[in-house]
Amino acid sequence: MNEKIRAKKVRLVDDESGGAPQIVPIEDARKLAEERGYDLVEVSPDADPPVCKVMDFGKFKYEQSKKTRESEKKHHVQKTKEIRLTPKTETHDVETKIRHAREFIANGDKVMVNMFFKGREIVHQEFGRQTMDRFIKALEDLTKVEKPPRLEGHRLSLTLMPK
Questions:
Q1: What is the pTM of this model?
Q2: Mean per-residue pLDDT for 94-106?
Q3: What does residue 17 show for φ and ψ, rounded to 5 degrees?
């Protein structure tokens, strides 16, 4: 920036004049920037000759930090949220769990629904499958099934992901 640029000649990009970049001596570029009350900023130091731009450096840094903050906001790491059930989970409780799953999906997370069978409950797997089907139907507008309901030991598992 300004006095720190060591090249003898630079390719000057000037937004105000609107013309094509011109190769000018560094002193002329510094004078032009000083006359306008701006800074001479080295945009591309690796080019031959280096590309410099007449701009307000403080504003430039602010805009860059704003862009990086904005891109960080958009970047969301997808997590897998777990919802645990049993075959004896009551209807209203299942509705509440579906509402929680809807919130997780809206935040862009995957949802893993696990139904745990204890003891002889494993004999009545149809109750678990009915509940899993209810989950799929209730959330079909927001999700797609990543892993269909599958029995693994004493656990019936289903994974849903956002569309």
A1: 0.57
A2: 95
A3: -75, -25
